[in-house]
Amino acid sequence: MTSKIPCYYINPKDGAEMVLVPGGWFRMGSDDSDPEAENREKPCHLHWLDPFYISITSVTVGQFKQFVKETGYANDKDWDTDPPEHPVKHINWHDAKDYCEWAGLRLPTEAEWELCARGYEALKYPWGNEWEDGNRVCWDKPVESEGNTVPVFDHPEGVSSMGTFQQSGNVWEWCKDNWDEDVYKRYAEGDFDPPAKSDFRVLRGGSWSFNSPRLFRGAFRYDYPEFRSLNIGFRSARTITF
């Protein structure tokens, strides 16, 4: 007999609020019907995921501060320049990985991130298929917080169908995966193994410092070295064991 898996979970270590994502088959990637789609997003294909939890928001300055206090983690202090309720930034991939391990969590895979950002309908943006002048995201066109991030629960009008906030805008988010520009071609053949080692990692979601709407699409993929930057943060995920 298996116990029921709750739809809502609070991680005891860092207080991260998480939602259950059922997994299963979903449409991943883009096809030629999207004129903004790049080859690195193609082909659109059916992809399989096991159930998992993902955090409702990206990790905040306050949460990362708790991690640093408890572990003595060495990072440049640029991450501590925003209010506690804002997303932590100036985070490299290893910072994000180490935080997640401390919290008993992990980074989401690229496929998990995309499912949560687009839903089972493979929406263009977390809220739907229209950009709507960017009114649902934190980007560099509106003057918000003096051209910086906003609190992680801002823009509820941009929430995804999975209940996740700001998977478009605010900060780019690290994924667990190594970067492989052509990996969707292999996925389309049914081989869902993650990419092998590379010199780059996957970023998704766009950020407050960018102004091109195509970067805020749920299918947009970005490669980046494992460096810190003023517009990069992360959210966490959790494996479900049966």
What is the structure about, briefly put?
The chain is an alpha+beta fold. 15% of the residues lie in helices and 17% in strands.
Written account of the structure:
With 242 residues, the protein is of the alpha+beta class. The chain contains 4 helices and 10 strands; from the N terminus they run E-E-E-E-E-H-H-H-E-H-E-E-E-E. The strands form 3 sheets. The chain has a 4-stranded antiparallel beta sheet, covered by helices on one side. Strands 8-7-6-9 form a 4-stranded mixed beta sheet. The longest helix is centred in the first third of the chain and has 11 residues, at 61-71. The protein is globular.
Descriptive tags:
alpha+beta; four-stranded antiparallel beta sheet; four-stranded mixed beta sheet; 4 helices; about 15% helix
